[in-house]
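User: Hi! I'm working on a homework problem where we have to compare a predicted structure to a textbook description. Could you give me the structure for the chain below?
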Amino acid sequence: MAVDALKCKECGKKYPLEALFVCSECFGPLEVVYDYSGLDVEEAKRTIQSGPQSIWRYSEFLPFTERPKSRLATGLSPLIHAPRLGEYLGGLKNVYVKNEASNPTHSFKDRVVSVAMAKAQELGYEVIACASTGNLANAVAAHAAAAGLDSYVFIPTDLEEQKILATGVYGTELVGVKGNYDDVNRLCTELSAEYDWAFVNINMRPYYSEGSKTLAYEAMEQLGWKLPDRIVSPIASGSLFTKLYKGFNEWIDLAIVEGKTPVFHGAQATGCNPVANAFDEGVDFCKPVKPDTIAKSLAIGNPADGPYALDVARGTGGTIEQVTDDEIRYGIKLLAHTTGVFTETAGGVTVASLKKIAERGEIDPDETVVVYVTGEGLKTLDAARGTFEKYEIEPTVDAFNEFVPTPVTA
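Assistant: Happy to help. Predicted structure tokens:
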């Protein structure tokens, strides 16, 4: 295993692999660094292919000295070729949807929680906690229950009912905070100094974020050890976006795959767009906003990794898109109609952003495009309300023929 240390992203100071998340010298964020010297590429591929059907097949590239085990298998979500979606978008031949709804709690957050919890247990923590916009709440509550650990989940009080129910059912201590996600996160940061708990997205954040790299590894493995030409991913804190970049580039640098870094497109809602605004204005900092969007899982007004996400988009020749709530609803409908995949609002943001990029003619029809759909549509059912028509008829053939449109081939 290659894990080496924690390292400040700003000043480069190194730290031991403990529950640390900010540099004591410059207050920059810490991230995990690895020493891959001596890695046998072909042996690494064989180890991956013979590994478990979960993210732990990539444990060589995660922050552990031994392959962890978890009771809820996470990862290896389907990479779905979407020719009908590509055709709608102007004849794109190779659009793929990475559908994270297949994970245990139906979002990509199972990946980051799996890594953070394994590290927390390794460090001896007995209580797991988080600040969440919904999907993380589901994942922390479920994985803590499976592991037999106590958990505390903090959420904004106005979260979608489906996500609240799908958290409380696991028996966690569920705390609604009167405020937005940034208020919840601020409270949890203070609590992390008071209680000896593992907050997965605060004092475990350097390890937690590494779980997102597996979404890049899987896409490359599922494409036959090849790189996509471009990716489209939602942006909330910016962590997923930057760790996808890290995952692709780790395998390029190690010659596990050949080619150049994909073009990175980020996707935000107009109602919570600090990164997209900074991109449009050509600045390298994100001005905080007060979220007001149906895409609550992306509603982080002060994104911790926003500046790094800007660097990724600009450095790869990509963009940060923003779409309205109506465009989000249409994105959900478009994905469902053309692929059979029902996404939550974050996926609607992503698909609507892909549509904008395609309409500008920026995508060559032969390019391979991976679109990250990070959560399940059943979690945000209200977004689908009013987007289709339901016919109510008497139980007769005549009524059916009179009121319901039928295909010409019927």
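For your comparison, note the following. Residues 328 and 348 are 5 Å apart (CA to CA). The longest helix spans residues 239-253. Good luck with the assignment!
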